[in-house]
Amino acid sequence: MLKKVAILANGGDVSGFNAVIRAIVKTAESNNIECYGFIDGYRGLLKNDYIKLSSTDKASGILQKGGSIISSSTNANVFHYKVVDENGNVEYKDLSDKCVQNVKEDGFDCIFTLGGDSTQKSARDFSLKGLNVIGVPKTIDNDVACTDITFGYNTAVTVATEALDRLHTTAETHNRIMVLEVMGREAGWIALESAIAGGADIALIPEIPYDINKAAEAIKRRQENGKNFSVVVVSEGAYPKGGEMAIAGKKDDGEGVINVKLGGAGERVAEELERLTGLTARCTVLGYMQRGGTPTAYDRVLSTKYGSKAMELALEGKFNVLTVIKNGKLDCVPLEDVVGNNKEIGALQDGTLGNVKIVTMEDDLVKTARNIGINLGD
Ligand code: F6P
Question: What is the CA radius of gyration of the chain?
């Protein structure tokens, strides 16, 4: 019999966090289960910092709100946690046992982990330590294995598409190349899908290292056909053949968190296209606009489905799984399949295998883009 469950939100914010929280809380209440929220992701688990969530109080009126009412942490891997002493000495410690102790002592029957691949890896590791966990796949990057879609992704694509519509105006009016840099880390999903939705002429993604000359040729062909402007989407992780991803900064918050800040890919492409085509090029970096604010209707529904399914699974006693959408159907898969040796993980730029689901050349989006003449830099 479940009595008490808790939610934690981890990683970069996305639109839809609160919609998932609301759905878990409401489904829990329908079954007379108390629901709590750990503050600041796994950091809350470590500090034993949590609040009561109820649909008449904290979790009320949050469906359309961006961010997370229980915050979220982007750099807290409690299995390799950065600890700085008073002299500034840095040590990385495994503090996961403290988290397990907190959860057990306070009697939580299940922890719902809302997050991307790193979050779900920690969730899997906690399940190996005896906690009941259920993951919900979150990220604007859409790069979590074993699911067709993560919550937050649709909103990011929608924002990027609207940006492309607006950039088209300036491109056409001033005969310019307008470059839009979008997020996505090692995965080109946002770039590819928004390029199709926004009618872009070129899309550069990390999965296809680009030849800038091919992109420039595509722009020149458009000029020959009387189109003196072009719109280009560049994924933040896109890089030239034989080159490197553009890095804006690095930090060291331990293993299992993002220590590399990508940035500059769009500007690099804009400068080179200007040089090669003679057209004026401008770059816009969409940045955190993709993650903040109100979720689309699609994301509200997806998040609600994910949240209610997660609570249903807990009621069935089906733990250590991730809620997924597979071939359009709401389902779940073992966390081990998501962050372990599954088939969907892809090779990253350095040749290592990552946990992330990247775009494959067989994907419908790639075929569609090519069919309608979007140049992919190859
Ligand atoms: O993974 C989500 C994401 O938004 C990426 O697309 C982006 O590279 C990264 O997070 C940015 O992270 P931060 O919030 O640390 O700047």
Answer: 22
Give the model's pLDDT for residue 74: 87
How far out from the chain centre does Cα 56 lie?
30
State how far the Cα of 194 lies from the Cα of 182, in Å rounded to an integer: 9
Question: What is the reported pLDDT for 256?
Answer: 72
| Pocket-testing residue among 183, 234, 236, 348, ligand 1, by greatest number of atoms within 8 A of Cβ | 183
- Distance CA(221)–CA(204), nearest Å, equals 18
Which run of H or E residues covers position 84? strand 81-84
Is residue 378 within 8 A of residue 208, CB to CB? The reply is yes
Kindly name the residue from 13, 40, 125, 141 that is annotated as catalytic: 141
* Cα 356 to the center of its chain, rounded Å: 10
CA quadruple 293, 298, 304, 309: dihedral sign: negative
Query: Are residues 176 and 229 in contact, defined by beta-carbon separation less than 8 angstroms?
Result: yes
- Asked whether the beta carbons of 136 and 112 are under 8 A apart, the reply is yes
Is residue 140 lining ligand 1, measured as CB closer than 6 Å?
yes
Q: Report CA 42 to chain centroid distance, whole Å.
A: 17
Cβ neighbours of 124 (radius 10 Å): 21
Whether 85 is catalytic: no
**To the nearest 10°, the Cα dihedral for 336, 337, 340, 342?**
170
Euclidean distance between the first and the last CA atom of the chain, given in angstroms as a whole number: 57
**Neighbour tally for 47: CB within 10 Å:** 14
pLDDT at res. 343: 47
Segments of the chain with pLDDT less than 70: 341-354
What predicted TM-score, i.e. pTM, was given to this entire model?
0.96
Any idea how long the chain is? 378
CA 45 to ligand 1 center in whole angstroms:
22
